[in-house]
Amino acid sequence: MNSHTTEQRIPGSRSLDVLRKQYVGSPAGAPGVGGPRGPMGGPRRGGGPGVHAKGKPKNMRATVRRLLSYVTSYRWQLLLVFCFMIVNTAASLYGSFQIKPIINNLIDPTLSASARISALSGSLLILACVFSVGIVTNYVQARLMLKISQNTTEAIRRDLFHAVQELPVRFFDSTPTGETMSRFTNDIDSIDMMINHSLTGIVSGVINLVGTFIMMIFTNIWLTLITVIFLPIFARGGAMIANRSTKYYSGQQAALGAVNGYIEESVSGQKVVKVFNHEDVCVEEFTTLNNDMRDKQFRAQFWGGIMGPIMGNTSQITYALTAGIGGLLCLAGRFDVGGLALFVNFSRHFSMPINMISQQMATIFSALACAERVFTVMDQPPEEPDVPGACTLPADAAGCVELFNVTFGYVPEKTVLRNITLRAEPGQKIAFVGSTGAGKTTITNLLNRFYDIAEGEIRIDGINIRNYTRDSLRSNIAMVLQDTHLFTGTVMENIRYGRPDATDEEVIAAAKTASAHSFIMRLSDGYQTMLQGDGANLSQGQRQLLNIARAAISKAPILVLDEATSSVDTRTERHIEHGLARLMQNRTTFVIAHRLSTVRNADAIMVLERGEIIERGNHEELLALNGRYFELWSGITELD
Questions:
Q1: What is the pTM of this model?
Q2: Closest to 548 in 3D by CA, of 573, 521, 531, 525
């Protein structure tokens, strides 16, 4: 149990109940979107093997039917697997059946020594052939089933990825990243294990059970009846232990996820931990979680480990009883010694398939629950299709943007924007300022149709954006965001992401436009320098310059800058502003900024509060109003 009592806890450390709630309450890997908090109170960054609810699926019939639609694509291979299972089981049973003639011939006093040796040699030759067939069929069966399971999970993973690509931004804004990731990893891995191991284990167990039962009846029906009497005991005992072990294994998995998540978060936040002298708190909280995992692992391993011994000892009772009664039958001349040896061998192995089936059922239910979660993501409604007859926004579009009485809310009961009306002429620079949550970023999300408006209309070059295809609309709007994202690949590949058909010369020209060329040439391999970990080997300013170069190469007539310089120092900001100035030339630009100095040269500034434009005009006009903008500029009121 936990070695620290409540009274001994270090001030600031959290109790086990709190830690459980924060680190087990959502899937591992969830990056803090409405999820648990980290050691320093920051958003949890996740880690761990995907903590999610275990148990039966809510709609088992539909889940099984849909899963079978993938598996039955390989129906002929499955039929071969089934046939090989039968042959393998028959070979095993027939090999065991050879015990009877071998023993009877060896103890038969009427046979000479040479006859016994000849009979034994013949039986051994038969066993060699039979077991060779069993080995070959088992190998082929395993290979076929492995291929089926891998192809099936590959198809599910492919369909899931395709479905995710079609999901609207609303889904990703409301779903933690780790929860989506766990569908691709843990859940699909569970499906693979079920198809490749659990499913074949159950089918093989049923075939073995039926085959063994038939051979027992064929050998001695009376001893078979005695064995059957113990069947309810086997089934009941196996089910009880399996249910208990499943419960504790689920707790162990949750505890493991909490420990892994805490370790990942603490290691990644070591600078913060050391700055605030929280080493002792981290050790205390980790010890709490570690002890909790130890206790859960002990229970899970204990109940998982006693299945074999308990069921094995139960079968030994049946073995001893049938051996004793069979011995009496032999003494009475009603049974032969070889038959008795054969039957007790069958009796000993009769409980094994039952144990196997009972153990695999819990795994199958868990895997079906995982499959249901995967299919739930697949069934999420995709982005609405383009309207019939949607036109293409041409690459040489003028870039005139108009909003007419736009009203929007992410949820129906909460309106974010109210009656927004504005016009941006081609090449104009429009800036949005206002408090956090005023709706500045929401406007840019609507331009891209990441969300569709509830009321009003947005036009580009006089045409409602709903009448453009989404692909052509988004290809004509370049965005530079505060949070940059670089992909694993070279610098040149990351810049070319803005326009995949761009030549190397165009990539270099875009980098020069963004003031990124000089620092790129100082990298170890220049434009061929490999970036990994979201550009971890670059500074924040360098990553932003690459982001600007990516937008520059797109040649989109409309540009959106969302807090593009808010997280860099003043010197780096000047470099970025030089790049942005060249980038904004001849483009309709929408700028969102907290630093008002970056928007003073805008053609028009929109001051938003509570989703409404309360002031509009250029820098001098707004200062002359002595309103909200004047308060923000003079520092009388700060931006929230």
A1: 0.71
A2: 573
Asked if the structure places residue 8 within a domain, the reply is: no
Determine, yes or no, domain membership for 31.
no
Residues 363 and 418 in one domain: no
The pLDDT value given to residue 526: 92
Is 48's pLDDT higher than 60?
A: no
* pLDDT per residue as tens digits for the range 511-526: 888 888 988 999 989 9
Per the domain annotation, does 53 fall within a domain? no
Quote the number of domains for the chain: 2
Tell me, yes or no, whether 322 and 412 share the same domain.
Answer: no
| Strand (E) or helix (H) holding 612 | strand 612-617
pLDDT band at 25 (very low <50, low <70, confident <90, very high): very low
The whole domain housing 539 covers 401-634
- From the CB of residue 166, how many other CB atoms can be counted at a distance below 10 Å? 13
The percentage of residues in the chain with a pLDDT greater than 90, rounded to a whole number, is 10
Q: Could you give phi then psi for residue 387, rounded to 5 degrees? A: -65, 150
- Are both 368 and 435 inside the same structural domain? no
| CATH code where residue 422 lies | 3.40.50.300
The reply to whether 197 and 229 lie within a common domain is yes
Judgement on whether residues 418 and 361 belong to the same structural domain of the protein: no
pLDDT of residue 464: 92
Determine the Cα–Cα distance for residues 440 and 197; give it in Å rounded to an integer.
53
Q: How far apart are CA 327 and CA 263, in angstroms?
A: 62
CA distance 65 to 69: 6
Mean pLDDT of 379-384: 88
Q: Residue 529: what are its φ and ψ, rounded to 5°?
A: -65, 130
The answer to whether 32 touches 42, Cβ cutoff 8 Å, is: yes
Angstrom distances, CA of residue 431 to CA of 209, 563, 592: 75, 11, 6
**118 within some domain:** yes
List of residues 6+ apart from 142 with CB closer than 8 A: none
Q: Which two tokens stand for residue 628?
A: 């909200």
